[in-house]
Amino acid sequence: MLYAWIDGVKRPPLAKGERTTCRDCGGLLTSVIPAENVRHWRHKAGDCDPWSEPEGPWHLAWKEQFDLSCREVGLIDPATGERHRADVLCGVGTPQATVLELQHSSISEDERAAREAFYRQAHRMFWLVHIHNEAAFHGYSFGFSLDFRSRTYQLGGYTYGVMRWAGRSSQFIEKWKRSTAHVFFEFQGQIYYLASEAVSRQLGGPFKKGEFALCPLTRADFIRAVHGAS
Ligand SMILES: [Zn+2]
Questions:
Q1: What is the pLDDT at residue 230?
Q2: For residue 129, what pLDDT is reported?
Q3: What is the DSSP-derived secondary structure letter of residue 165?
Q4: Domain boundaries in the chain?
Q5: Residues 6+ apart with CB under 8 A from 75
Q6: Could you give the 3-state DSSP secondary structure of residue 164?
Q7: Ligand 1: distance of its center to the CA of 73 in Å?
């Protein structure tokens, strides 16, 4: 986790040896100040959010786009006591309250579905999936797939392109097409909204395996959407 409450302030660690307690679980947190990566807090006895993953500059830069109070918000399922920390939660107490999950590493379909089931109980949910070539070559496949010329549609003031996944296996894109949340991709600094099943139907879908529709949008539009603008 990048932020913790210490001396009445929510902030990243500033120095080696700093300690505080996690407001979610009461566990001891120690500061980690790596030379090459972002500074963060580590639970001494294991993170209270089992979905917690290592975070880097990409996560930090996105979290910093939102008010400090919206970053890393602990949520609990009152029925089961299950506890998770939303990367970003905007609009608490409004009908547009939105959880944004920032996904840099790959995630299994089961975990994707589990996170959606948890966060969507009481919120809208957005994924922002960082597409790159670090673990698999999704970046190349995605880049070669982009096509906003062959089959374009106007919907709600936005331009959608329908395209085919260019990789050997379409498992990656099919997994995100099945999401019950709103899925956005970031590729080389550009944001794309992946047409949901409902939107796909308005674009002539449902689409065949390997086919999908994207709508490019600006970072400002995306941030506004997380804040509840439609
Ligand atoms: Zn904790």
A1: 60
A2: 98
A3: -
A4: 1-48, 50-226
A5: 83, 84, 85, 86, 89, 99, 118, 119, 122
A6: strand
A7: 11
